[in-house]
Amino acid sequence: MPVKDTAELENELSEAEDLKKFLDDNADNFRKFTLAEYLRHLLEQKNLIKAQVIRNSQLDEGYAKHIFSGKKNPSREKILSLALAMNLSPQEANYLLYYAGHNKLYSRNERDNAISFALNNNKTVLQTNELLTDLNMEPLIGN
Fold first, then answer.
1. Residue boundaries of the structural domains of the chain
2. Distance from the first to the final alpha carbon of the chain
């Protein structure tokens, strides 16, 4: 059975008359990743090299390795730095934020819009920090 996308699940839920049946019928569609598992999934799915992602993220190497191993619960900014380093789309970044326990990018927030713009345009962490600074916004991580 193919995995359903979020819109399909939301549509089925809105039409469901029995929540238990909906949950049972769609059990295979609910992914329950830890952050470390989802990061590994992204590395495999996108054929990325962890060491290169860590370098591109501008995060401290030791700290980033702890994120990938599940030993650290990083800030939202560090997760967004990883998303940029992995060239994720805003939607993929939102999934990463979800698995890290943070709020998704919000279109009514100017800073989040700048970050979404950077993600959509494959900006690096440094380029994103420059963009944020030019807009008088707080950079993701210190320079």
1. 1-30, 35-134
2. 47
